Structures are given as C-alpha cells and as structure tokens.
C-alpha cells in the first residue's frame, strides 16, 4: 500500500448557516489518481477551494506529508506543492506561455536580486518553459501569447506550471469539459506520466467512462457529506451513480414508442465556408435524430445556421416540404424551430431575470394586451410550465442564475416549448447537469417526441446519443460521414466515422 | 399591488438608497427649518425636474447595456429648435413643442441607428453625436441665444397649476409613463433581456436592434422635453445650454441602482437618485456651502452609492 500524502478529517464548512461540507474526509495516496464524484452542489468545489487555500474551513484537519496544513492563502499551498487546474483556465491572455508559467516567480527563476531583478529578461524563462513543455511531450511555443492557444493547450500550460511548482498534488476540475477526444488522450497520457513520477491527482469530472479509464480510487460526496471511498475496480457506472444520487436509477433512457410521422424538416446541400459542407438529412415528427461527432466537427455550427444565428452560404431548408429562408432567430421561431444552446450561460437565459420572465421571453407577444404584458395569462402559463417540467425553484420571481444547472436547462427548454415549435434542436442538453436531472431531461425529450415534435439532439456523450436517438448522423470535420440506424449503431462504429 | 412591488424591491436588496434618502431628508428637516417647507420643496422639485427627465431616458439606455453621452447636446439642439418657433404671434404653442420633441426623436433615433448598424460601442457613438449636437445647436442659432419667446411657451417652465410648478407636473407624468413602459410593456421586458444577456435575448427571438433603436429614441424624446423645459424656464434657447447634463443624469441613474453593465434598474430608483442629488445641492445651498464643495460631496455620494450596492450584492451571494 502506497503511503498517504494528504489526509483530510472531519472537514466542515457552512455558508450563512447552510452546511456546504459536513464532516468530509479524504485519504489521498502518493501517485494515485483519485476521482472526486458527486452531483452539482455536493460540495466538491467547496472542498477543493479549501484544499488550495481559497476558503478557510470552519473545522476539521488536513495533514499534508505528515504536518498540519494551515491553509491561509493560495501562494502558501502552492509552495507546499498543491496546485489546481481550474475549469475556467485562470490565465492571463495577453502574456506569453512562459510568462504565464512563471508568473509571480520571475525572481526565483532568474535568480536575480537587488536592482537587476527589476529588469525582466524573458530569455531565461523562455528556455525553462521550453524544457518543461518538451519534457511533457507537447509542442507549444513558449513565446506564444496565451490568447492564441486552444483550451487544451492552455491546460497543458497550466499543468506545466504546476510541475514547475514541484506540485505533489494536482487538482483537476473537469479538465475534459471543453477539449476534443484526441486531446483527452494526450491529457491522460500526461496524467499517467505524472502518476509514475509519484504525483497524486485529484480528478473531478462528470463523465463516467473517463472516471473508470483514468482513476484508481473514487470518493463520493453527496449533499456535502462523505459517502464512501472505493477502488475504481470495485465499482461500475450503475453502482457509482446510485452512490452519487442516493437511489437506484433503473432506467437511464426512456423507451421509444417508435411512432414517427411525416417529414417535418429536411435540409439539402447545407454549406457554410470553413464550418461544414454538403449536409443532407431529414427528421420526422416524433423522431429523435442524434448528431454525433468530435468537437469541431460542425454540429453546433449546423444547428446555429438552421436557427438563423449564423448565415448559410448554400443549401436549402424545407419545413413540411416548403422551402424556407431563415435569417434570424426571430424568423426561425416564427417558422416553428426551437433551439436550446450548448452554451447555457452565454445564449440560454438571462441570469438576472426571474424564472418567470425567462420562461415567457420567447412567447411574450402571445401574452399581451396591446403593448402591455398580460400578467394574468403570463402567470398561468409560467406556472403550468414549472409544474409540467418539474422545475425546482423557490418561486417564479427567483432569479434564474440561482437555479441549479439542470433546472436552468429546464427553464430554457420551457421557454423554447412555449413558442410552440414543430422542430426542437437540443445542443448538449445535459452538459453540466446532474445525473438525477439528466434522467428527467431525457424523459422530457422523449415526451416531446411522443407529442409529435421532431427533435435534433447534439451530444458529445456517446451513451446519451446511443440511448436517445432513433437515428444518428455522424459528422467529421464538417462533412457527414454516416447515417446510422438505432439498431446498427455502436460506440465503436460512431467513433470510426467520427474520425473518418 | 404596491406591497408586491415593494417586497420585490426589498428582495432585490436595493433599499439602501431609499434609506439613505430618507435619513438625509430627516436629518435636513431637523437641522434646517427652512428645508421642509412647501416653497423649498417646490424649488427642489423644479430644479430636479430636468435632470430627472434626462435620467429617466438614460436609465432605459443603460438597462439595455448602452450609454448616451449626447443628452446635454440634445437639450441644447431641441431647446434652440423649439425656441426658433416660439416667438410671440408666430405659431401656436403646439408647433414649437412638436418641433422640439421631433428634433429629439430624430436625434435619438439617429443614435440608435448608428449604434446598431455600426457595431461601434455606444460610448463612442454618443461621444461623437454629443459634439455633432453641440455644433448643430450653434449652427441653428448662429451662435446667439434665441430669445423673445411667447408667454404660453414660457408658462411650461415657469407657470403654476393650483400652486404646483408646471415642471413638477411634467416630471410626475413622465415618471409614471416611464415606469409603466419599463414594468408593464413588452418593450420594457425586452430592454431588461437585451441588457441582461444580449446573445440569449437574440436567441429567444427578440429583435435586439429594434429594442435598442427604441431606447435611444425614447431617450431623445425625454431629452427634448428637458430641453423645452429649460428653454422655457430661462426664456431663451441657449446653444450652450445643457453642457454636462449627461453626467448628472447618468449619476442619478447609477445612484438609483441601475447597473452600468445592463440588465437591472428601476425608474423609482432613478427618481430617488435625481431627488437625492437635488436635495443635497439644495441643502448645501441652505447651509451656505460653496458650490466647489458641493461637487466634492456629490462625487463621494456617487461612489458611496455604488459601493453600498455592490456590498449588498455580495451579501446576497
């Protein structure tokens, strides 16, 4: 048994009386990848913030390499060897890669003192950064400005920074949420390398398949409480989900009744320069068409073009066999298309507006008397949607930003539904959503299809695509490479066409 | 209804400004007996009216995430235009009024049009039109004040109805209309949506550009109303009038809780903001504080209001 590098005991933290962490424990071994699992709000991020010194715990103890960890500030914990790679990449875009890696440590690295330390000379840090990146086996120019890097490259830079800090523990918060599958493979290679060198990784992710691929040990939190720590080999995804949600989920994906009507939407020859070309497909009423592919395959771009957010260069869109031109989302909505964006915060809802105002936003024109809002009919409609979609909110006037991810998503779906669409495009409908809420959203999507809506669902999660779709369109680099039926589709087959 | 509004307001944590206003008023009433007298309150109301009108206008604009720096210049242009048609025994009263309001409408619509079509930040667009407007006012008046205005026209800024100065009546009507637009109409709701998250508003099918053109146009009309009031009160159309008015108006909106990043704000807040500015300068007058110090005090209050507001936000998490 490997030695323990970090032991956390009875850690508790409350925010204005509400317990975010309640007697949490962790036993991190040297050189292991330890997954921290739990739904949103389970306390994972609070826990990690305490570990790196961003928050102070109310009680409990943390023993790092045999001595007590008094986490007062971040630079202190960094020096001791605990680094965190944040999900939102806390980097300075205008500085170079090397400058970012050695930010705040320029003097130590260049070993200058006195007056000469006031002048910065980048040649030394550039050389060191180049060495570091080479060691990791990634090719990134240390003199490139950070803002020109892809998310995956930024991540590598952050890891290089952690290594240069002699990190013994690296915390990775959803490192794969915004990178492509190929980049994930590179990341995992580096994680294994770090592991071999005795670095311990605390790995946070919602993606089950990844967790089982990379982690040795899994600790589960639920509602701020410690549930269990188990070897990854003792668990499978069903038992893990049951631990996270606190109940058995018998069926992740609802059955399809298979009643498909006539073709509602068909597209021919769709092209947009540099994004996608020659896309053909059709969707029937009651059918769910899955769009699969790697990140950057052009799935979201196709959806945005159909919804009128981006211009089309070429091609024809037909709704119920009538050729239509869609020039704006306003157009699209009036022609019966609804779109739930992958970027919920950016394109989905208005954070400072209430739940009610968000739900009614696309259909406000149907709830008015002259120029005035008809508050009575608004309220009735909003309440109907809240109960139909089972949105958990403290009231209709709660701000949307304070809801959980799953409930925010339901608000967006509710808004789209109120505009009475015939076609709904759902782009990554369960991104950042808890397992429990995922199941509800799957049910909701299936219900919409059963009501006769034609559905296009984009997803990067293969189990989701396989579980929900009646047919699957696979894209690769902007071209469509396969149309698979539910019966013939497998993960391997989809991947084969996705990289074709 | 009122209670519902109030509780909503309290929930949003924006009551600090009401409290501050009430405390300052009580303090003043106790320290200077002249403060809480009907004539003095009428003076404050009249003095506040123009700034409040402009502040209502710019509140709409700021809620959508924009800004309008051309308010002061619009006051001058519309004032000069109105005055040109307001000489005695020329046109009926409606002509100068409609001409002034029409000028404001066109100017505002132009602002909105350029902001939406050029994609240049509104700060820069309206910085440009601020200078253009000032130039237009000087061109139209040939650089000279336009005086000799008719009695009916001068009544607007100087007259009383049942002992209440006419500007106060205009102020109250404008406040009610603006509040209703913001809270009760589809357009008002869209303003919050556009300022709260423009991409999401667009994806929800809202004609974002149309909403923006509307708010700048409304802002232009309210500035024209301010321009007409000012011209009537000083009985001349001054091409140099209104310089710096935009800053007082923006200050009133911000003190009243309108966030410069868009998406939040209320007319009640802006009205209180404008009244607070008016009350403070009035009381500093009563206390014989020179106008130099008044500016320092005003600046501190603006910053203080925003600090208070963001502290409240943090507390709410």
Automatic annotation (TrEMBL), chain A:
<dbReference type="InterPro" id="IPR003439">
    <property type="entry name" value="ABC_transporter-like_ATP-bd"/>
</dbReference>
<keyword id="KW-0547">Nucleotide-binding</keyword>
<keyword id="KW-1278">Translocase</keyword>
<dbReference type="GO" id="GO:0005886">
    <property type="term" value="C:plasma membrane"/>
</dbReference>
<dbReference type="InterPro" id="IPR027417">
    <property type="entry name" value="P-loop_NTPase"/>
</dbReference>
<keyword id="KW-1003">Cell membrane</keyword>
<dbReference type="InterPro" id="IPR003593">
    <property type="entry name" value="AAA+_ATPase"/>
</dbReference>
<keyword id="KW-0813">Transport</keyword>
<dbReference type="InterPro" id="IPR050107">
    <property type="entry name" value="ABC_carbohydrate_import_ATPase"/>
</dbReference>
<dbReference type="Pfam" id="PF00005">
    <property type="entry name" value="ABC_tran"/>
</dbReference>
<keyword id="KW-0067">ATP-binding</keyword>
<keyword id="KW-0677">Repeat</keyword>
<feature type="domain" description="ABC transporter">
    <location>
        <begin position="6"/>
        <end position="248"/>
    </location>
</feature>
<protein>
    <submittedName>
        <fullName>Sugar ABC transporter ATP-binding protein</fullName>
    </submittedName>
</protein>
<dbReference type="GO" id="GO:0005524">
    <property type="term" value="F:ATP binding"/>
</dbReference>
<dbReference type="GO" id="GO:0016887">
    <property type="term" value="F:ATP hydrolysis activity"/>
</dbReference>
<dbReference type="GO" id="GO:0015749">
    <property type="term" value="P:monosaccharide transmembrane transport"/>
</dbReference>
<keyword id="KW-0762">Sugar transport</keyword>
<keyword id="KW-0472">Membrane</keyword>
<feature type="domain" description="ABC transporter">
    <location>
        <begin position="259"/>
        <end position="500"/>
    </location>
</feature>
<dbReference type="InterPro" id="IPR017871">
    <property type="entry name" value="ABC_transporter-like_CS"/>
</dbReference>
UniProtKB/TrEMBL annotation, chain B:
<feature type="transmembrane region" description="Helical">
    <location>
        <begin position="93"/>
        <end position="116"/>
    </location>
</feature>
<keyword id="KW-0813">Transport</keyword>
<keyword id="KW-0812">Transmembrane</keyword>
<feature type="transmembrane region" description="Helical">
    <location>
        <begin position="42"/>
        <end position="62"/>
    </location>
</feature>
<dbReference type="InterPro" id="IPR001851">
    <property type="entry name" value="ABC_transp_permease"/>
</dbReference>
<protein>
    <submittedName>
        <fullName>ABC transporter permease</fullName>
    </submittedName>
</protein>
<keyword id="KW-1003">Cell membrane</keyword>
<keyword id="KW-1133">Transmembrane helix</keyword>
<dbReference type="GO" id="GO:0022857">
    <property type="term" value="F:transmembrane transporter activity"/>
</dbReference>
<feature type="transmembrane region" description="Helical">
    <location>
        <begin position="213"/>
        <end position="230"/>
    </location>
</feature>
<dbReference type="GO" id="GO:0005886">
    <property type="term" value="C:plasma membrane"/>
</dbReference>
<dbReference type="Pfam" id="PF02653">
    <property type="entry name" value="BPD_transp_2"/>
</dbReference>
<feature type="transmembrane region" description="Helical">
    <location>
        <begin position="12"/>
        <end position="30"/>
    </location>
</feature>
<feature type="transmembrane region" description="Helical">
    <location>
        <begin position="292"/>
        <end position="311"/>
    </location>
</feature>
<keyword id="KW-0997">Cell inner membrane</keyword>
<keyword id="KW-0472">Membrane</keyword>
<feature type="transmembrane region" description="Helical">
    <location>
        <begin position="123"/>
        <end position="141"/>
    </location>
</feature>
<feature type="transmembrane region" description="Helical">
    <location>
        <begin position="161"/>
        <end position="182"/>
    </location>
</feature>
């Amino acid at each position: 048994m490997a030695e323990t590098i970090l032991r956390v005991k009875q850690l508790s933290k409350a925010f204005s009386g509400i317990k975010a962490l309640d007697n949490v424990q962790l036993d991190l071994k040297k050189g292991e990848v330890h997954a921290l699992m739990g739904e949103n709000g389970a306390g994972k991020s609070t826990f990690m913030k305490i570990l790196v010194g961003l928050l102070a715990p109310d009680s409990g103890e943390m023993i790092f390499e045999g001595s007590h960890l008094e986490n007062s500030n971040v630079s202190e914990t960094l020096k001791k060897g605990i680094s965190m790679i944040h999900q939102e990449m806390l980097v300075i875009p205008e500085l170079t890669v090397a400058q970012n890696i050695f930010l705040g440590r320029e003097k130590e690295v260049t070993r200058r003192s006195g007056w000469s330390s006031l002048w910065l000379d980048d040649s030394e840090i550039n050389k060191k950064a180049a060495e570091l990146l080479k060691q990791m086996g990634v090719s990134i120019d240390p003199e490139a400005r950070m803002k020109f890097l892809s998310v995956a490259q930024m991540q590598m830079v952050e890891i290089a920074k952690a290594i240069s800090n002699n990190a013994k523990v690296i915390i990775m918060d959803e490192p794969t949420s915004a990178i492509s599958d190929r980049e994930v493979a590179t990341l995992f290679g580096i994680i294994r390398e770090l592991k071999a060198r005795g670095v311990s990784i605390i790995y946070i992710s919602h993606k089950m398949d990844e967790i089982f691929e990379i982690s040795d040990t899994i600790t589960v939190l639920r509602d701020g409480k410690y549930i269990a720590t188990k070897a990854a080999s003792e668990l499978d995804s069903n038992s893990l989900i049951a631990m996270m949600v606190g109940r058995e989920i018998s069926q992740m994906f609802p059955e399809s009744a298979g009643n498909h009507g006539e073709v509602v939407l068909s597209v021919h020859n769709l092209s947009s320069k540099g994004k996608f070309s020659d896309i053909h497909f059709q969707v029937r009423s009651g059918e769910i068409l899955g769009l699969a592919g790697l990140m950057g395959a052009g799935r979201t771009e196709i959806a945005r073009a159909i919804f009128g957010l981006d211009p089309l260069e070429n091609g024809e869109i037909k709704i119920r066999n009538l050729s239509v031109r869609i020039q704006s989302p306003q157009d699209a909505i009036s022609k019966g298309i609804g779109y739930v964006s992958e970027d919920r915060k950016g394109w989905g809802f208005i954070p400072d507006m209430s739940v009610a105002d968000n739900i009614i936003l696309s259909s406000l024109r149907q709830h008015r008397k002259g120029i005035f809002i008809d508050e009575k009919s608004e309220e009735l409609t909003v309440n109907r949607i809240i109960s139909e979609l089972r949105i958990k909110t403290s009231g209709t006037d709660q701000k949307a930003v304070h809801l959980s991810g799953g409930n925010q998503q339901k608000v967006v779906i509710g808004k789209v539904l109120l505009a009475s669409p015939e076609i709904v495009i759902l782009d990554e409908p369960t991104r950042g959503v808890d397992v429990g809420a995922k199941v509800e959203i799957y049910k909701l999507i299936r219900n919409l299809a059963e009501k006769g809506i034609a559905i296009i669902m984009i997803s990067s999660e293969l189990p989701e695509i396989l579980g929900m779709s009646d047919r699957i369109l696979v894209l690769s680099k902007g071209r469509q490479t396969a149309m698979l039926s539910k019966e013939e589709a497998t993960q391997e087959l989809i991947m084969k066409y996705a990289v074709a | 209804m009122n209670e519902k509004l109030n509780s909503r307001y309290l929930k949003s944590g924006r009551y600090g400004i009401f409290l501050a206003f009430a405390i300052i008023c009580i303090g003043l009433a106790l320290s200077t007996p002249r403060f809480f007298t009907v004539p003095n309150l009428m003076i404050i109301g009249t003095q506040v009216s123009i700034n409040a009108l402009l502040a209502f206008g710019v509140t709409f604009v700021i809620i959508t995430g924009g800004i309008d720096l051309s308010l002061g210049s619009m006051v001058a242009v519309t004032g000069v235009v109105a005055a040109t048609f307001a000489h005695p025994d020329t046109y009926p009263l409606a002509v100068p009024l409609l001409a002034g309001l029409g000028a404001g409408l066109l100017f505002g619509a132009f602002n909105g049009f350029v902001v939406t079509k050029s994609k240049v930040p509104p700060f820069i667009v309206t910085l440009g039109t601020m200078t253009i407007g000032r130039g237009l006012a000087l061109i139209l008046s040939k650089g000279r004040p336009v005086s000799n205005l008719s009695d009916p026209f001068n009544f607007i800024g100087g007259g009383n109805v049942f002992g209440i100065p006419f500007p106060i009546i205009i102020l109250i009507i404008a406040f009610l209309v603006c509040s209703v637009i913001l809270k009760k109409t589809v357009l008002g709701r869209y303003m919050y949506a556009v300022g709260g998250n423009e991409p999401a508003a667009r994806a929800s099918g809202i004609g974002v550009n149309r909403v923006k053109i509307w708010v700048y146009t409304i802002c232009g009309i309210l500035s024209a109303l301010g321009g007409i009031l000012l011209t009537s009160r000083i009985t001349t159309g001054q091409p140099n009038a209104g310089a710096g008015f935009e800053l007082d108006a923006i200050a009133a909106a911000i003190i009243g809780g309108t966030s410069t990043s868009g998406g939040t704000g209320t007319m009640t807040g802006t009205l209180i903001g404008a009244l607070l500015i008016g009350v403070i300068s009035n009381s500093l007058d009563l206390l014989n504080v020179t106008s130099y110090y008044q500016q320092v005090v005003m600046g501190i209050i603006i910053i203080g209001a925003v600090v208070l507001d963001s502290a409240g936000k943090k507390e709410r998490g």
